[in-house]
């Protein structure tokens, strides 16, 4: 893609798209179910729906997230395993609320042999848990971007963390949905 402006390279735009998805989901507040988005080239979307020209700018946003039907929060892994995207979809993003534990609690949890339900209870009842919204976005070329918004409280301010490797298992599962 030599000679193509960075704004037109989807891989470069992926972190911005992940932030856009997080901001979109944030507008509805907390306690939202998992939400899946198809990431399609904005130019392709405009070719199919020219009436969107006033709302979308392919130079500033080469990828457009399109919200999909609701996903089950209790069997998210199974739902993702059954998804296959058409070729027009360049990538996908998933927004979900999670509980984040401090490192020492994560270590204690990994040392115990708990089933999924017991692990959820442990996390939900831990006094240092933090609620968070995680957005993981991936492209067919294997690139990933993640945004984590830690919910604030009276004692702790809200924080936003970005790193492509925040959720390697989730990004791997999303990449699997993009395989032909």
Automatic annotation (TrEMBL):
InterPro entries for this protein: PPA1309-like (IPR047681)
Q: Which NCBIfam families does this entry report, sorted A to Z? A: PPA1309_fam (NF040618)
What is the name listed in the Swiss-Prot or TrEMBL entry for this protein?
Answer: PPA1309 family protein
Question: What species is this protein from?
Answer: Saccharothrix mutabilis subsp. mutabilis
Q: What is the lineage of its organism?
A: Bacteria, Bacillati, Actinomycetota, Actinomycetes, Pseudonocardiales
């Amino acid at each position: 893609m030599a000679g193509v402006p960075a704004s037109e390279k989807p891989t470069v735009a992926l972190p911005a798209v992940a932030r856009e998805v997080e901001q979109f989901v944030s507008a509805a507040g907390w306690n939202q179910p998992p939400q899946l988005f198809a990431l399609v080239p904005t130019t392709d979307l405009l070719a199919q729906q020219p009436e969107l020209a006033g709302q979308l700018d392919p130079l500033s946003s080469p990828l457009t997230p399109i919200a999909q039907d609701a996903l089950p929060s209790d069997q998210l892994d199974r739902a993702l395993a059954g998804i296959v995207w058409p070729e027009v979809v360049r990538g996908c993003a998933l927004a979900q609320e999670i509980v984040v534990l401090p490192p020492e609690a994560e270590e204690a949890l990994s040392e115990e042999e708990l089933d999924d339900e017991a692990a959820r209870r442990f996390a939900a009842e831990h006094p240092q848990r933090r609620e968070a919204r995680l957005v993981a976005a991936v492209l067919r070329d294997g690139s990933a971007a993640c945004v984590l918004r830690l919910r604030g409280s009276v004692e702790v301010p809200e924080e936003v963390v970005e790193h492509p490797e925040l959720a390697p298992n989730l990004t791997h599962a999303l990449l699997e949905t993009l395989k032909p």
